[in-house]
Amino acid sequence: MSAQTLSFLAGARKVFPILLGIIPFGMIYGVAAIERDLSPLIAQGMSVLVFAGAAQLAAVDLMGQNASAVVIVLTALVINLRFTMYSASMAPHFLRLSPRIKLPLGYLLTDQAFLISISEFDRDPAEGQKVNKLWFYLGAAIPLWCGWQLSTATGIFLGARIPASWSLDFAIPLTFIALLVPVIRSRGTATAAAVSGIAAVFAMALPLHLGMIVAAFLGIGAGVLVERKKQDE
Amino acid sequence: MSSSVWLIIGVIGAGTLLLRLSCFFFSGKRELPQALLRPLRFVPAAVLSALVTPAILAPEGTLHLAAGNVRLLAGIIAVAVAAKSRSILPTLAAGMLSLWILQALARSYS
Q1: At what angle do helices B88-109 and A3-35 cross, to 10 degrees?
Q2: How far does the CA of residue A197 sit from the closest CA of chain B (Å)?
Q3: What is the pLDDT, as a whole number, of residue A195?
């Protein structure tokens, strides 16, 4: 097996448990879209054209409330602002790739693909063999894309037939918790998470879902300060 | 009517793609300056935390720091399981099971 195939499989292996967490996420979005009278084509179309769960859910919610187009677009884009941060972190690893490859790589970028890839790429090289980054990333990202499309379609198909009392929407923050905990490895990251988490609750009142991005910036700032203080000790 | 929905979706999609690609096409310096690199390390922790806490601490939209908030309790259990197992399946299972059990308990005591 070539190094590329091995790397692809390594990425796929890492992403597999996360895929299971994506299934309820996609289904909830699909159900929500149908409940708000969106056509199945539009609902699935958003999964293809936008491919971002949190923003899709928010957009669908706002459409159901008859919000203006500007509000819907701005809210979705603010929620997706975190992708610039992921882009900045991933860019050095994709530096030598051709622009034509970078386009689909960018399209496939998600929280999960980013987190899996960055924890693999930033590993201490002494720990073991280095993977082919492009193929590892594809091994993680492509199954995620397929899983998202399939679970969205399932939700759309089931429509309103999933009872709200099942609380399947809780699977969404659970997935994020499972991704968050391993990422907290130092005083800086713990501070970043704590500050951001607390700020996010207080910032909920901000319009256009700005709370999340404001909280994230505060958390990042706090993490940097704590780390800098530790270095001065 | 639906054409305007497609327009909205198209704009969100294009904008999101631009955000995803935003740093991919900067040529030149191989390394970002430290001032930009250092904050990037905290992005996953900060962003994930901001996505988690409102759903756990304020599931109804306002802060609910009491034992009555079953999602908070289930969330704490999920964090403990995540810390121990470092794996998503046990975390997901433990979180959902805890929630269902706590919800059933809450119903039988109300």
Answers
A1: 20
A2: 5
A3: 97
Cα-flanking dihedrals φ and ψ of residue A182, to 5°? Answer: -65, -20
Rounded distance between C-alpha atoms, residue A15 and residue A106, angstroms: 18
Whether residue A3 contacts residue A132, with contact meaning beta carbons closer than 8 Å, is answered with yes
Distance (Å) from the C-alpha of residue A5 to the closest C-alpha of chain B? Answer: 24
Residues of chain B found within 8 Å of residue A45, distances taken between Cβ atoms: 6, 9
Residue B27 has pLDDT above 80, yes or no: no
pLDDT at A59 over 60: yes
For residue A105, give the chain B residue with the closest CA.
Answer: B21
Contact A80 B9 (CB under 8 A): no
* Contact indicator for B89, B81 with CB cutoff of 8 Å: no
- A166, closest residue in chain B (CA to CA): B100
Residues of B in Cβ contact (< 8 Å) with A94: 24
pTM of the model: 0.83
- The interface predicted TM-score of the complex, written ipTM, equals 0.86
Q: In angstroms, rounded to a whole number, what is the distance separating the alpha carbons of residues A6 and A11?
A: 9
Residue B71 near chain A (CB below 8 Å): yes
For residue B40, pLDDT beyond 60: yes
Of the candidates B92, B95, B99, the beta carbon closest to that of A20 is on B92
Q: Helix, strand, coil shares of chain A as percentages rounded to 5?
A: 85, 0, 15
Average of per-residue pLDDT across B37-62: 87
Q: How large is the average pLDDT for residues A116-123?
A: 86
Residues B78 and B80: their CA atoms lie apart, in Å, by 5
More confident residue, A190 or B59: A190
